[in-house]
Amino acid sequence: MRLAAMAALMALFAGGCGSAPRALGEHEDGAILFVVGALGDGPCYSGLRGGLASERRPTFTVGWGAPWPLGVFNLQNRWIHESAERRLAELLRGLLEHEPPPRLVLVGHSAGCGVILGALRRIPDQRRVQTVVLLSPSVSPHYDLAPALARVEGHMHVFHSDRDWLLRWRTRVFGTYDNVRVAAAGCGGFAADALPPELREKLIQHPHLPQYAQLGNKGRHWGPVSRRFVAAVVAPAVF
């Protein structure tokens, strides 16, 4: 029953999941849920999906918010954000309520990271996802990570870059996902000093390194979703 319920929920909430029942029937380890950025899914994320390809665990794309070309409203509209967070939380609750719960990995890009963080706050305290990966998160650096980290069994990996000029400009001028006019955490990482030690050790922050350019990630906003970078750097964090 657990796999059937998982497949049904994935079909309801995740985009492009026509193969969900078959895939989940073959992979009892769980799944990777990829939450797209504010402008929605598209060819820009094909590299990420290719880099995450694994025979052990399938990847499903979770869409949210207004569709293209209205995606600009997804950047900072609080009603849209809360709706997306509630829907993802509902999906997670449905998947994690079975025993034993499936091993879930959440991967988000840009504003999708905010959806993940907000959704984790909304699931029961006793439920845990395995791993969270945030790529260029557009939330503010002082966003309260404690509720989300408390619902992560392993680690939360944050990939950020001080060369992400697009994210830096936009969030300073128009505000972050959580409506703070400051360079987002995707530029310089999260301020983690206020976190309790047991939660702080779950947070692993990865600044951009010069050698990542050889993997297709030059530090710009879309760099961390390039296929070679995901396969060589991000996937090892997940698996």
Portion of residues within helices: 25-40%
Give helix and strand order, one letter per element, not per position: HHEHEHEHEHEHHHEH
Which sequence of strands runs across the widest sheet? 2-1-3-4-5-6
Question: How many structural domains does the protein architecture include?
Answer: 1
Compute the gyration radius: what is it?
16 Å
**CATH arch. level architecture:** 3-Layer(aba) Sandwich
Class computed from helices, strands and strand pairing: alpha/beta
Q: How is the quaternary structure best described?
A: single chain
Q: Alpha-carbon distance between the termini?
A: 26 Å
Largest sheet, in brief, is:
6 strands, parallel
Instruction: Compute the number of strand runs.
Output: 6
**Count of DSSP-assigned helices:** 10
Describe this structure in words.
Helices cover 36% and strands 13% of the residues. The chain contains ten helices and six strands; from the N terminus they run H-H-E-H-E-H-E-H-E-H-E-H-H-H-E-H. It has a six-stranded parallel β-sheet with strand order 2-1-3-4-5-6, sandwiched between helices. Strand 4 (131-135), helix 6 (146-149) and strand 5 form a beta-alpha-beta unit. The longest helix has 19 residues, at 78-96. The model is unreliable at 1-26 (pLDDT under 50).
TL;DR?
The chain is of the alpha/beta class.
Task: Please give the structural blueprint.
Layout: H1 2-13, H2 20-26, E1 30-35, H3 46-51, E2 59-62, H4 78-96, E3 103-109, H5 111-120, E4 131-135, H6 146-149, E5 156-160, H7 165-173, H8 185-188, H9 197-200, E6 203-207, H10 227-238
Parallel strand pairs: 1-2, 1-3, 3-4, 4-5, 5-6
Helix pairs in contact: 1-2, 1-4, 4-5
